[in-house]
Amino acid sequence: MFTGVTAHLSGALSQVQTEASGPTLGKVSESLTLTCHISGVPITDSSYAWDWIRQTPGRHLQHIVLQYPFTGLQHIASSFQTQVSSSADPSRNQLSLEVLSPSAADVATYFCSSRELGKGRVLETQAGPGQKRKEGV
């Protein structure tokens, strides 16, 4: 079982917006694909990188993937390298995250966010209903 997936990056700091979607529930061991649609900037813009992050119940945020679609490179966190697959589709301006053979340990709220390169910060993200975060890195 997986929790709902929503994420937004909003307007005060940037015109970039992200919106994640996917099933709100999934079966253990059946792969699950989440999608993040980007608006306000092409995902291939070299000023931005994109993150997939999750928060499990009662735990801290866990960084899953950092993607650089303008170069085709990505960094999957070592603890997730055999558990996820990530891709970018510039023609649809969206990112996808596939959770491979999920287990009960993968129950979490998953969200995507943008990272403005050279600024050393993640802008404003919202993960799930009413959970608003401002994060500085």
From TrEMBL:
Gene3D superfamilies xref list: Immunoglobulins
Ig-like domain boundaries: 29-112
Gene Ontology cellular component annotations, sorted alphabetically: extracellular region; immunoglobulin complex
Cited PROSITE patterns: IG_LIKE
Protein name: Ig-like domain-containing protein
Pfam families associated with the record: V-set
Gene Ontology biological process: adaptive immune response
Keywords on record: Adaptive immunity, Immunity, Immunoglobulin
Record's keyword annotation contains Iron-sulfur: no
